[in-house]
Amino acid sequence: MTAPTPASDSVAITQPASRRGRWLLAIVALLVAGGLWWRLGDVGHAQKGPGGMGRGEQGPQPVTAAVAKALPLPVWFTALGTVTPRSLVNVMPRVAGLLQSVDYKQGRMVKAGQLLAQIDPRPFQIAVAQAQAQVEQTQAQLAGAQRDLVRYETLLGQDSIAAQQVSDQRATVAQLKATLDANKAALNNAKLQLSWTRITAPVAGLAGLRPVDAGNMVTTSGAVGAVTVANSGGGTSAGSGGGNATPIAVIAQVQPVDATFALPQQQIGEVVGQLLHGKQLEVQAWDARNTKLLATGKLVAADNQINTSTGTLNLRAEFDNKDLALFPNQFINVRLLVRTLPDAVVVPSTAVAVGAPGTYVYVIGAGDKVALRKVVTGAAYENLTQIVSGVRPGERVVTDGLDRLRDGSKVRVVQARQAMPGPVASGAHAGRPDGKAKPAAAGGAH
To answer: Which of 26, 111, 228, 325 is 20 to 30 Å from 296 at the Cα level?
Structure first.
């Protein structure tokens, strides 16, 4: 048997190696092709929007919309205010003596002329009796001197008395007349002092807490030895610390009551102009949370100068306050009705956006495509904003979903917005179907 040659051995070894290489290359190619297919599939899927459509084939964006309408729109200015009594009176004793009684109920309404307290009148009654006696004594002396003068004048006519004696008698009569006048004045003063022992209310109003109790000695500076502290009404009351005068009562006139507030100088021109021409502007008082209407009144006065430190002008409004809803020193939110725009184009405030283009809205046009429209806004009331220019009545504007839109986007209105309110009332019952107005945002409309 012949042994294999070296050449035949080389061929037998290289043929299996080349087949293995081709298989490896085929496997690598398949893996690369599969990876590319998977990658391209992911990219294609990512480029598709909802529903399987591509990025350039996105469906309509869901939005809510409302129709711009022409409505009467009230223009309100808002400010923080403080309730102030029409008058605040510290009732002080006008004579000194023992305080016999305190006859008013603290924290209750009192009438003008009502008895508040009584000072022991007996010393003053004695003084009146003494003054009365002096008057009667002088009257008797004057009557005798006048009779003597008549007799002297008769004797002088008969040349039976010296003229000097008659002249002296006339001087005596004149002196007694002057003394009688002085005694009558003293009597009137004593009666006046006696009347002051009855301390009465000079004005009608709400009495504060009782500062002095019966049994104290009082002077024209209040109770002897009493010390006082300021109370919330701006008056004084008995307590510790200080040594100011202690009133018998503190009365705040609260029917009607005033409210003081300030407006920035940019807003006062129109307000003061109407006030000086005699127009009564409506003013509303809302509670501190701006949720409840407390009272409706009118603007009555404006200060004569602007505060240079704040750039504001103080104004004063008057409220009847028949139900005592407003209390002195109470903080309130004030709303001042300046005017009513008869046919203002309004849209919901949520339709107005501010961004790089400025102030704008999205108007829904033909084919449910939106157009970015720059607008100029005006007054704001409740949830409505006036559009001075840029939108016409009847056009639809997007109210929700603005952040997902761009000019030319196609939209789909998914929720029919409730109809906006009809003509907006300008009085105290504006803004709610139940007749109670909802407060506007702080800062007011410009």
So the answer is: 111
